[in-house]
Amino acid sequence: MRFRHLIFATCFSLAAAAAWAQSGTTESAVTADYVVALVNSEPITNSDLRMQTRIIEQQQREQGRSGVSPAALREAALERLITERIQLQMAELMGIRADEAAVDQAEKTVAAQNQLTVASLRQNLEKEGMSTAIFRRQLGEQVVLGRLREREIDARVKVSEPDVDSALAAQEAANAQLSNQSINIAQLLIALPETPSASELAAAQAKAQSALKRIRNGEAFEALVSELSNGDRKNGGQIGLRRADRYPDLFTAAVHDLPVGGVSEPVRSGAGLHILKLIDRQSVRKAAALTQTRARHILLVLTPELSAAQAQERLQKVREAIVAQQTSFEAAARDNSQDGSAAQGGDLGWATPGMFVPEFEQVMDRLREGDISAPILSRFGVHLIQVLERRRVELSLEQQREQVRKQLRAQKLEERFTTWLAELRARAFIEIREP
Q1: Which of 142, 150, 243, 415 falls between 20 and 30 A from 221, CA-CA?
Q2: Cα first-last separation, the chain
């Protein structure tokens, strides 16, 4: 079974919805309200702003972020309201709507994310002061925003083959830098004391120049190392192939412009005078690789007779039986899973990143080998997931191109969305009103 990505998936948490309710706004509460901004003559009220501020504050708490000033929260909330209002107005002009089926699915997703039935979700929100109608309206707005972005941004962003070629060429250029090379250097060392006298330095320099002259006259570097060097004479004085940044800067600078086989002028260090020969130079190309995951799952498909909560309860019992070793995962998958992988004990084979839908893959990626997830909801139903093993694999050239293509597309989408939103805002009439 292979899952395809869906363009819209709601991330509206119950805590964020409760934050809305705690702002003091209800469907009928309009007392002491006032307009804080106009977007193309459509008002944003103080109650709207309070609601959005509480939602952002709650989201930041969930992300472990704190310390943002009330003024900064309010500014961020107003900016979000303005940009969303502009987009919703554009969607209305284009005839983009949220059908009931899409809102129903979004509501089911929120309920499942919060381990609730839809009925329980509505009851909880009602207790907090938020009506089902307003909650569903907000979900509908998120559906509309997703569809608008798909039409105006996603469908128009293309990545050409020359774009991919350029990105790969840039990677190759980076690999050609000295810091991304491995080199092998041999040295002939003429030793000097830590603080040599003038005569000692002159004698060493004369000896080094004599050796260099003999090398350039055709004598073997290795033979002269054996005869003259005060350093390691094994293997012709070779230090060994290693990353360039693991050699002294003095050495890498001396051989930087040398061809393989070239010999440097004598260079001085605290140990003495070095004549260096570049034995080998290799580009260190970081192997393009990715982590593949081999997992298995048990899937229960939701039906009018089987709600998300019921499926989660049923799979929780299955999980407990597996953990207690009353049954094996393979046997439980064959007996319960409603997926084509059931006959193979739920085995999904080796999967690369992006093969499964995000809500499935995110949980799978957090699991350690051998771990079994809690029941999780995806757009296909409710799953138990177990990770069997992981491996790093090198990418083929085509896989590298596809990876670069995805990265470029993500960059272009973000750039295009930012530009598009700025253009929309520039055309809109926006008036910020002070309280």
Answers
A1: 243
A2: 56
